[in-house]
Amino acid sequence: MRVAVIGGGPGGYVAALKAAQLGAQVTVIEKSEVGGTCLNRGCIPTKTLIASAEILHKLKSLADYGLELNGSVSPNLSKMMERKDKVVAIQVKGIKGLFKSWGVNLSQGKGTLLSAGRIEVEKEDGTRDTVEADSIIIATGSRPARIPTFPFDGEKILSSDEAVTIKEIPKSLLIVGAGVIGSEFACLFSEFGTEVTMVEVQDRALSTEDGEVSELLEREFKKKGVKLFTGASVTRVEAREDGMHSFLSDGKELVTEKILVSVGRSFNTENMGLESLGIQKGKKGEIIVNEKMETNVEGVYAIGDVAGGMLLAHKASREGIVAASNACGKEARMDYSVVPAAIFTSPEIASVGLREHQAVEKGSSFRKGSFLYRALGKAHAMGEITGFFKIIADAGSDRIIGAHIVGPHASDLIHEVAVAMRTGLKVRDIAETIHAHPTLSEGLLEACEDVHGEAIHVQKK
Amino acid sequence: MNPENLKYHKEHTWVKVSGKRATIGITDHAQEALGDIVYIDLPDADTPVEANSELAEIESTKATSSVISPVGGTVIEVNEELAESPEIINEEPYGKGWVAVLEMDDESELDELMDSTEYERYLEEEAK
């Protein structure tokens, strides 16, 4: 069995390794660097920079922790970028090492589908190569959407790609779009001293999250001095001597040093031969697949961002495993019912399952429970008390249908609920499981108890 | 105890009236119940606020809760000092810890409120 994977991001490289583990002869075609957006321009670079921001944040409150600093601390962006490059390099090397260990062949270049069994690889030096395969997995990912309102130059008007390679900390920054990417960058840059303003067309930041999550994040933005204008869009920008002038739909005019546009992502599905093979695409340009990740053309699979749906690295990875399994004759299907997601704002946000408004829309009869970080001894000991745990459960079955955590380590804490949801555990199963003290996990326990009005550490209502 | 020249709302806020100006804050009981206040989300000037609705939001080490406006009107002043030092509310809930000043829409709303004796009786009832 020969499997070719176009694109070596978190979807493609995982698919390649899985196929190799199942005994296939695998080739990955990658035009830039393995690891894709996530590793080279997304998740990992931003989390590396956020780690610096978090330390800086803690240092600002040293006195609260009974510590004295003799000297001063200031962000050195070029050093931070060096560290980020090092972290990325280690990960890239790690993937290449895994490829080598499992015998995955890496073909550097741009892949174009010639048929359902042949791919042409255009190398950087202009030479061409052909890869033949029994199955092809398309995992070409996405890129920041570029809308004509913003003449991107990578200097004054940035996408997230350029924001992670920026040379200097801007004095002021307008972030267009208060979604996941925009909100993460808002927290990051404001920590480094940038005066951040955000414009969001929806009526709240993180409009796809639970309403209470947005509410808390918006309050945190206020505390950080991040200005957020919702229900507005940027209609025109103009570069002038004193900075970038942005004109908003509500008549406001904002002047900032730079603009970061984070209004969504476009699928990398052009100029790669999809049309000549007759591979069906959806309205947004995403490749249409079934739950086995098969396209309408036999032997051709699509996974990750190009397959539409949630733009998440771990969703891509799972789809990669499903596609690789099917390609190797081991039937597998995708199950999207439990996909946790994390947002690395400050504080962190994590969610799985339904938001409350979705539960209402579905007409499900549900109960909810919540608990505040500030009611946890551990949170006080850590000096980080902002945040909450929220559990939404089916009133009849007592099964969890959604969970939302905002606060330190939310991204790690969410998985207890993910496991519970996937295995159909009841709220009581978590509530009756002893949780170690003192931990943040106790917050989940109490939120589950609160679903039945039985939380111990709450005042009598 | 609770000053006699103020009017009190059952959500543990107070109002001091001078003409159409209503200065609003939270009561000593409220600050005591909240514990150490770490943040207050103040309203912007010119914001219209209805009686019995949220005027500001307070975060303490124990809870987050709404400051309920005892009267309706338009915010004409906020206590900017609280942004930097919200603990002033704990220290002087009836003095330097005031939250905002409204220009009242309807002075008859004051009739709905309690005087200090009534408020103290209300606290005793609540404690039962």
Which structural category fits the helices and strands of chain A? alpha/beta
Mean pLDDT value of chain B: 94
- List segments of chain B where confidence is low: pLDDT < 50 over at least 5 consecutive residues: none
The Cα radius of gyration of chain A reads: 23 Å
Q: Any idea what the shape of chain B is?
A: globular
Strand sequence of the main sheet of chain A, in spatial order? 3-2-1-7-18
Structural class of chain B: alpha+beta
Major sheet of chain A, described briefly?
Answer: 5 strands, parallel
Biggest sheet: strand arrangement of chain B: 1-2-3-9-8-5
State the domain count of chain A.
3
Largest sheet of chain B: 6 strands, antiparallel
Number of strands of chain B: 9
Number of helices of chain B: 4
User: Based on the structure given, which CATH architecture of chain B is correct?
Assistant: Beta Barrel
Percent of residues in helices of chain A comes to 25-40%
C-alpha termini separation of chain A: 64 Å
CATH superfamily of the largest domain in chain A: FAD/NAD(P)-binding domain
CATH topology of the largest domain in chain A, by name, is FAD/NAD(P)-binding domain
**Envelope shape of chain A:** globular
Number of domains of chain B: 1
Describe, in plain words, how this protein is organized in 3D.
The complex is a heterodimer of chains A (461) and B (128). Helix content of chain A is 32%, strand content 24%. Chain A has helices spanning 12-21, 36-40, 43-60, 77-102, 160-163, 180-191, 211-224, 274-277, 313-327, 356-361, 377-382, 410-422, 427-431, 442-451, and strands at residues 2-6, 25-30, 105-108, 110-115, 118-122, 128-132, 135-138, 142-144, 157-158, 172-176, 195-200, 227-230, 234-240, 243-248, 253-256, 258-261, 265-267, 300-302, 341-343, 349-353, 366-372, 388-394, 400-406. In chain A, strand 5 and strand 6 (128-132) form a beta hairpin. Chain A starts with a strand and ends in a 10-residue tail after the last helix. Chain B is an alpha+beta fold. Chain B has one domain: OB fold (Dihydrolipoamide Acetyltransferase, E2P). Chain B is built from four helices and nine strands. Chain B has helices at residues 28-34, 81-84, 88-91, 116-127, and strands at residues 7-9, 13-18, 21-26, 37-41, 48-49, 54-60, 64-68, 73-78, 100-104. Classes of the chains: A alpha/beta (461), B alpha+beta (128). The interface between A and B is small, with 9 and 10 residues.
